[in-house]
Structure formats: C-alpha cells, structure tokens
Amino acid sequence: MISLLFNLLYNQMLSDIEVCYKMFSRNVLRELKITSDDFGFEIEISAQIARAKRWRIYEVGISYYGRTYEEGKNINWRDGLKALVYLVKFRIRNP
Asked: Are 14 and 57 in contact (CB under 8 A)?
C-alpha cells in the first residue's frame, strides 16, 4: 500500500519503496537534504529524487531473506502509519 501511494503521489512506477537498498551517484547525494533518522529516510530520499525530475529511479532485482520478529525484525503497524504521514509530508514540503 505504501508503494502504491508513493507511486500515485510522485508519478513513479516502483514496486517496493521501502527496500532499504539505495545507490546513487555523488552528484545526487550532494543535492539531497535528509532530515529523517528513522524509516522515513527511505521515503524522503525517493521523494526528493522523484520531485527533482532531473534523475530517474531504476529498480534492480535482488534476493534476500527477511528477518523474523524473533531474529530482530523491528517494524510494526505503527511504522506503516508513520510512512503514510511521511508520504504526505514530503509531497507537500518545498523541495
């Protein structure tokens, strides 16, 4: 749901916005102004790149094995609500 809303708000076609693996050139990195210190980081970076319209986001397939809650997975439903707030916040905030 988070990825679908991101795609609608930012005119993108991404399959998983919260993938956590991001790579970009130094030029892009210099222009990003990151304020988040939690899971909002993922949305903030992607939102700034999408809103700049100077760069294109490419997805590359990866494989991984997610952790279980017993192994230390820390995300829960509250993080999903925060992500929804971030989606709107970074969309209406000045670039």
From this structure: yes
Rama region for 72: left / alpha / beta (φ>0; ψ in -120 to 50; rest): left
Backbone angles phi, psi at 77, to 5 degrees: -65, -30
Q: How many whole angstroms separate alpha carbon 73 and alpha carbon 4?
A: 23
Count H helices, E strands: the chain?
4, 0
pLDDT in tens, 11-67: 999 988 887 678 888 999 899 998 988 878 889 999 999 999 899 888 888 887 777
Distance (Å, whole) CA 15 – CA 85:
19
The mean pLDDT value for 73-79 works out to: 81
